[in-house]
Amino acid sequence: MALARRSLLTLTALAGAATVAGCAKKSTDATAPQGSASGSSGGANLTVFLSGDTNMQELWEKALIPAFVKANPGYSVKVQLDLHGEHDAQTKAKLTAAQSQGKDSGLDLIDAGFVTGLAEAGIMEPISTSNVPNLDGVPADVVTAGKGGGIPYRGSSVLLAYDPAKVTKVPTTLDEVLAWIKANPGQFTYCPPKSGGSGGAWVTTVLDKYLDPTAAEKLRTTYDQEAMKGWSKGFAELKGLGPSIYQKGVYPNGNSQVLELLASGQISMCTVWSDQFISGQKTGLVPDKIKATQISNPSFTGGAAYLGVPKASAKKEHALKLANFVLSSDAQVLIANQIAGFPVIPLEKLPDETQKIFKEAHPDVLRPGYLDKVGNDMSAQWDQLVPGK
């Protein structure tokens, strides 16, 4: 889906089951009244399961849960963290078994990358505006990508970051970026796709330029080797850029190393994750002078993170209430401030200050990347075809 240019010049203002065989890395209890009976009309004791890093634990425990409990007295919410999703396979098996046996897994709300897969398998409660009213206004394609049971609650996208002192005419389309790289050798780079999503988005976007639109769309949902044959021209373009890349073909390992080159002035332009860029400016790791923008024809890729409520949860009505709260204006502002996550609800539902920060970013439209298996093949082909002399 093509996007209009989205400048982020104003963004500097933002910056496990109970034990799954011992898999959950950390379990804590966010403050709330402890005497509420499960399933009672006045509240419930809920468990939020996180598959991710400690920054997500902090988002829930320090921001979202306290705000929810304050607005909804009688609730107690506990977080269980599986650090880096090391035990995703066991957790998915536990949830699947609970569903097949009609038993409560003890997990009421899931925040994990596997939510959409389990939603497609019928493990997650189907969602709509009837049971999650705040979905109203969330882009339909983002909701659809949740496979019927995934609730989108934050997003991020890859952007073009640049130093305005060196980039006097900012590219607004992919063709203009490619022309700028060739005209300014050594001033642009990206990380290998397998080492970071910002590099993966760059490669995906260049490949999409030469793909038939139908084939490009198919590769987002289907492993289609015939469609992937259309990558040849895109990889030839990327190979041809080699002499114009930083130090005639140096591709740093990971998102952070690329951003560090830009922040230190060694390059003038690169691709970055929106949340990493915004957080970096907030903490001072990225100088205020550095700016970022979205391009078009096509835009860089991005995506949403999804919550899910297991069908087998005995407290799914209460879990849906928590999920709905996360899509409220108050909670979306907390997400933006805490982790620089794009809001998924319409900007007009947010306070003026937040609208001002994101008005040029248009975070309501996120162009998805390839299916994971397709992305793995893309990374392998890049390794074989692009680096080197």
Plain-language structure description:
This protein has 389 residues and is of the alpha/beta class. The chain folds into two domains: 14-155 and 303-358, Periplasmic binding protein-like II (D-Maltodextrin-Binding Protein, domain 2, 3-Layer(aba) Sandwich); 158-301 and 369-385, D-Maltodextrin-Binding Protein, domain 2, CATH 3.40.190.10. Helices cover 38% and strands 14% of the residues. The protein has helices at 54-71, 88-101, 115-120, 140-144, 174-183, 197-210, 213-218, 225-228, 232-240, 255-263, 274-283, 316-326, 329-339, 352-358, 372-385; strands at residues 6-7, 26-30, 45-52, 76-83, 109-111, 151-162, 188-189, 269-273, 291-294, 302-308. Strands 1, 2, 3, 4, 5, 6, 7, 8, 9 and 10 form a ten-stranded mixed sheet that branches. Helix 1 packs antiparallel against helix 13 and helix 6 (197-210) crosses helix 9 (232-240). Residues 1-26 and 31-41 have low confidence and may be disordered.
Amount of beta strand: 5-15%
Q: What integer value in Å does the Rg equal? A: 22 Å
What count of structural domains? 2
Instruction: State the CATH superfamily name of the largest domain.
Output: Periplasmic binding protein-like II
Please give the alpha-carbon distance between the first and last residues: 34 Å
* Second rung of CATH, namely the architecture of the largest domain: 3-Layer(aba) Sandwich
Question: What is the tally of helical segments?
Answer: 15
CATH class of the largest domain: Alpha Beta
